[in-house]
Design goal:
The protein is α+β, with helices and mostly antiparallel strands. The chain has 5 helices and 5 strands. It binds zinc ion (ZN).
Length: 147
């Protein structure tokens, strides 16, 4: 699949302009390309209680599921659903330059795109596995839960 990184970064910069960031004044936008060709976006949404702040990637992953072609059937307990996922993600600050996802969002993106998900960085695309090595995932739940 060809990935138009400049277009993805531009989509992230566009949605960064819609961010609600009155406290940090750091607007962030995220744009992701899905395996079925959709581009989904999200922006950060801050809250006076700070702990409730949503990163741009949270909105992106919500948009991924909200715009899926059909409602996904419920997967067996403990298994991740087999739905179209992200293949490439660009996250930028309000200045349009790449911004790496925070730790929480790297974990969120892992379940939305897997370890091969490409993430835009100032040095070029990097696999999520490089940014989140030895990650915790759904397989750990099924392997380690009480029987
Ligand atoms: Zn984050």
């Amino acid at each position: 699949m060809d990935i138009d990184w400049p277009a993805l970064r531009a989509a992230a910069a566009d949605v960064a302009g819609r961010a609600y960031a009155p406290y940090s004044r750091l607007r962030v936008g995220a744009a992701g390309l899905t395996s079925d060709g959709r581009v989904v976006t999200g922006c950060n949404v801050e809250n006076a209680s700070f702990g409730l702040t949503l990163c741009a990637e949270c909105g992106l992953v919500s948009a991924l599921h909200a715009t899926a072609p059909a409602p996904a059937p419920a997967p067996p307990a403990g298994d991740a659903p087999d739905t179209p996922g992200l293949v490439a993600v660009a996250v930028v600050a309000g200045d349009g330059a790449p911004l790496l996802p925070c730790g929480r969002c790297r974990q969120l993106l892992l379940e939305a795109g897997g370890p091969a998900l490409l993430v835009d960085t100032a040095g070029g695309p990097a696999a999520l596995a490089e940014l989140l090595p030895a990650a915790f995932g759904g397989a750990d739940l099924s392997a380690r839960r009480d029987s």
